[in-house]
Amino acid sequence: MSTEESLQFAPPTLDEQERMVEAMLFSSTEPLSAEAMEKRMPTGSNAAEVLRRLERHYEGRGVALIRVAGKWAFRTASDLGFLLRSEETATKKLSRAAVETLSIIAYHQPVTRAEIEEVRGVAVSRGTLDLLLDMEWIRLGRRRESPGRPVTFVTTEGFLDHFGLDSTRDLPGLDELKAAGLLDAQPKGGFAVRDAPEEDEDDDTPEDDQADLF
Amino acid sequence: MSTEESLQFAPPTLDEQERMVEAMLFSSTEPLSAEAMEKRMPTGSNAAEVLRRLERHYEGRGVALIRVAGKWAFRTASDLGFLLRSEETATKKLSRAAVETLSIIAYHQPVTRAEIEEVRGVAVSRGTLDLLLDMEWIRLGRRRESPGRPVTFVTTEGFLDHFGLDSTRDLPGLDELKAAGLLDAQPKGGFAVRDAPEEDEDDDTPEDDQADLF
Amino acid sequence: MPDAPEADTPQTDTAESNSLLLDIDGFEGPLDLLLTLARQQKVDLRHVSILQLADHYLAFIDAARDLQLEIAADYLVTAAWLAYLKSRLLLPPDPTDEDAPDAEEMARRLAFQLQRLEAMRAAATRLMARDRVGRDVFVRGAPDPITVNRQTEWRATLLDLLQAYARCKTKAAYTPLHVERPKIYAMEDALRRLGVTLGTALDWTTLQAFLPEDWREPRLVRSAMASTFAASLELARDGIVSLRQSEPFGTIELRKTAP
Q: Domain B3-82 belongs to what architecture?
């Protein structure tokens, strides 16, 4: 490495020093101080001086030389961050359990977990509710004023948006479902479906309406 | 991100595109293809064109834009290695058997174990191949369509990257070796006394065979 | 055959061969040893004298034998083969044996193998001397890896929703039929109750009077009556109570037997 040897005698040119600082900063896993770099460079080098040159050289480029905690590092220009992020959207069909749970919440809201389970006839997993909450299709409603004060679930604006509904009143009733051939069997007597859940059921006594439902 | 939005309408300027390619390559340790970068860039961008500009911009600097395995990568200038080498990064010394086996695979690929042994005159230990496979410098190629359907070995992109090669065509001295007939299974002209590997696909242009393997 | 004329018999350079002997473990097989010996001819390998090489090799093996060194089988196989090759190269071809391999071809083949091995070794050296990542050139130390933000968009249509609800309701309509087991007044209960209340029946008392209050409604009274009757029979057998019935289907009366 003749470069190295010759540098033993005369300090490298500023251009040479700039190359060295550039290479060190590029390959370093962490920010480097001017002193640390100078220690590795041939004697007579002045890292601080070439850092200023290097900073100017990278001005306005895709990569910037920045100071962090008194040390130096290359960073992607802040306006180009979008190139390094990518959104990958996968569409997945909602599970049967999730759609059923959602539909029960839509028709019976506000509804407790126990009530959902009663309609579905099977336990509702925490994960299913979490997923629906996460998707912001359902949210927590008021606590039920009954023993244990269970939380209730209601649908959200996002839910209406997704399904193109103006309000939950637009959900077809059981008779309409039947007419559409979606419902073959007679609904169990005594289990009434409200055609139109009230908009503000959270505010007034929802328990009363529910009383005959559950 | 106003930049991103405005780019939806008109392709960015070449300067802008150069910044983008620079940012992407700078932030990656792996070589990136022009196509992969273009996919991330606003429509109408031409990565290949700005890569040439970028290559010129980095000429003679401490960091160089190089072509490896048909892709692009920033690497420190090779004459500055002395500054950057540290105890930890010292590359492990490969055994002579491993080095020879690797070279035979590189120059003769796709090549079977029996063929490697034929060239070296000794058995190739399982450990040697395992080591090279483990380093991801070689991988299994297609099976040879000869009795026993032996597996073949070929070099990987990681191999090209490590040795700074754009393709296996760029292996040092490949053309001379080929011209001298030293990549053939048997001496030129005349018939073989010993049972030579019956397949003769490595006789002709092994690089061409690689085209569809990589 | 260019090799034949200048091929001289075992040369006096056995000293060199002996120095190699110390190293026999250092060779990677007979081909490696042959290549080392061939290089001693200090000629381009394309002009190597195979005859001379065979002699050197055989001398080497003989010397190793004299020193009673353990020689691996493949070295001996190669020695035998080279001895055969040597005899074939020295003797004129036997026109009667058409199947005999062409000695020149065999020699050419060996020379090729040596050249090829040497070429590969040279190539390996050149390859290893290239600017290598992590040794001569370095990659970005603090990469800013592309973060892929994976998002799952859940798909569900209004129809899915309605079908799901309809499914739930339909399922509810078909809840399995539970046949409720009628409440039974167990005989043990009747016995216990009679035992407790018998003290009040010193006079004839109707069986009905012993039925518990909550078992008197029509749906339950039959079971209570049957059990109480059975219990009274049990007590009568033990001589604890007496029973009487004035007419068929008439009222059954009971009283505690006088002690």
A: Orthogonal Bundle (1.10)
